[in-house]
Design brief:
By secondary structure, this protein is mainly alpha-helical. The protein has five helices and no strands. The chain has one domain (about 15-140).
Length: about 170
């Protein structure tokens, strides 16, 4: 039985960023824009999921479920909101100054690829942050369970009486 499932074309970040690749020629040859729409939607999905995962990690520092959910929602909004705010300026200046300006859809594909890359970098930082947060929590719990140490040789703790330091020439 033949395979009847449709496969979407696969584009890497290198394809999107490399102006010499056949990505943009395939984009221009596709009048319906199905390939590029699929690529943009996948990139934006990766951007939202990666930013949400990083937001989950940052939310754990607040300790409450509300803080975790809030950070999971706010970080993708921050990433996408910043991109939406800055995109018109980027597109206008690259159209004005670039030797081979990108079309609007090419600019959007480039922007969505960059957003996906940023969120993947954020998501890759999440496991070490979770580990360090867990380690920090365990160290704090351990230090709180032990009584404070004091320097019992001197009656004022670590400093000599009256806060004066002793040494040569100091009495």
């Amino acid at each position: 039985m033949p395979n009847t499932t449709a496969t979407l074309p696969s584009f890497s970040a290198g394809d999107i960023l490399n102006k010499n690749s056949d990505f943009y020629s395939r984009l221009r040859d596709d009048p319906a824009g199905d390939d590029i729409r699929a690529t943009i939607s996948r990139s934006l999905l990766v951007a939202v999921l990666g930013a949400s995962f990083f937001g989950l990690t940052l939310g754990t520092y607040g300790g409450s479920l509300a803080q975790i959910l809030s950070a999971m929602i706010k970080l993708p909004i921050l990433l996408l909101g910043t991109a939406v705010f800055c995109f018109p300026t980027f597109h206008i200046f690259q159209s004005w100054k670039a030797p081979k300006p990108l079309t609007l859809i090419e600019s959007i594909s480039l922007q969505s690829g960059v957003l996906a890359s940023i969120s993947l970098i954020w998501a890759s930082l999440a496991p070490p942050l979770l580990f360090s947060h867990q380690l920090d929590t365990q160290l704090q719990a351990h230090s709180l369970s032990r009584p404070a140490r004091r320097n019992h040789r001197r009656p004022g703790g670590l400093l000599p009486p009256h806060g004066r330091l002793s040494g040569p020439g100091r009495h």
